Amino acid sequence: MAKIFCVANQKGGVGKTTTTVNLAAGLAKVGQRVLMVDLDPQGNATMGSGVDKRQLALSIYDVLLESASVAEARVKSDKLVQGGCSYDILGANRELAGAEVELVDVERRERRLKQALAEVTAEYDFVLIDCPPSLSMLTLNGLCCAHGVIVPMQCEYFALEGLTDLVNTIKQVHANLNKDLAIIGLLRVMFDPRITLQQQVSEQLKTHFGDKVFNTVIPRNVRLAEAPSYGLPGVVFDPSSKGAQAFVAFAQEMVLRIGKM
Ligand code: ATP
Ligand code: MG
């Protein structure tokens, strides 16, 4: 049965999508069966996996509105298959922005994704959900079905402050909607060890959160930033780059942690 993880941080541009697609590719590379769910109307994780969001016949929007099942809406990416790190994709595009409004009067609307995923979780080892930069109903749907949250963060001055809101939301969801939910870990991303402040914040994180901080650190690496314009995760685009290697190491760390869950 798959373990389900949300990649979430309400702050924009912190590396959620980069983490989701590269962890998905890294897990596929080490032999795990993965479904990647794009829960962001920006559709960046969809495009970054080699699927054109404008060409999607069915998407997560149809799944949330119960007009399609996950099995009907998921797709594969030829580029990922060619790259030898294939995972399934439940894609998103702008249509998804409407779901929030359309579900407003629906009962148990925050559980739509959980219900839909239940039909396919036996087929996967991991389900990874790329959340939008907000604590919206979409993110809530992700948190309701997850076993854990992976929080990518940059080691900058305000990083810890932003965490408080997320931690409080996760506590509320845990108390009211999903007893399984926990923060699996904080992932330090875009890390530059030459910057003293980043080292200091990294140490602070370890002091505050202990073993909730992943051992793997993702460096700032231009190949990871270039990869999306080729419709590929960095892990597939340039496997020998420092960024790709870090994400494969992170995938291995996740597999080990899950063994202990
Ligand atoms: P949003 O909140 O808009 O969804 P996000 O949290 O998903 O953003 P990303 O899109 O993953 O963030 O990353 C933001 C930008 O930083 C992108 O241009 C991405 O290519 C770049 N980036 C992410 N991680 C790295 C890295 N380790 N090294 C260099 N660039 C990176
Ligand atoms: Mg994103």
Number of helices: 13
Looking at CATH, the homologous superfamily is: P-loop containing nucleotide triphosphate hydrolases
Largest sheet: 7 strands, parallel
CATH architecture: 3-Layer(aba) Sandwich
How many domains? The number is 1
What proportion strand? Answer: 15-25%
Q: What is the number of strand segments?
A: 7
CATH fold-level label: Rossmann fold
Taking all Cα atoms into account, the compactness measure Rg is 17 Å
Write a concise keyword list for the protein shown above.
261 residues, Rossmann fold, 13 helices, 43% helix, binds adenosine-5'-triphosphate, binds magnesium ion
In words, what does this structure look like?
The protein has 261 residues and is an alpha/beta fold. The protein has a single domain, classed as Rossmann fold. Helices cover 43% and strands 16% of the residues. The protein is built from 13 helices and seven strands. The protein has a seven-stranded parallel β-sheet, with helices on both faces. Strand 6, helix 10 and strand 7 form a beta-alpha-beta unit. The longest helix is centred in the middle third of the chain and has 18 residues. It is globular. The protein binds adenosine-5'-triphosphate and magnesium ion. The site of magnesium ion (MG) has 5 residues, from helix 1.
How are the secondary structure elements laid out?
Elements: E1 3-7, H1 16-29, E2 34-38, H2 44-47, H3 60-64, H4 70-73, H5 78-83, E3 88-90, H6 99-102, H7 112-118, E4 126-130, H8 137-145, E5 148-153, H9 159-176, E6 182-191, H10 196-209, E7 213-219, H11 222-226, H12 234-237, H13 242-259
Parallel strand pairs: 1-4, 1-5, 2-3, 2-4, 5-6, 6-7
The chain binds adenosine-5'-triphosphate and magnesium ion.
Magnesium ion is lined by residues 16-17, 40, 44, 130.
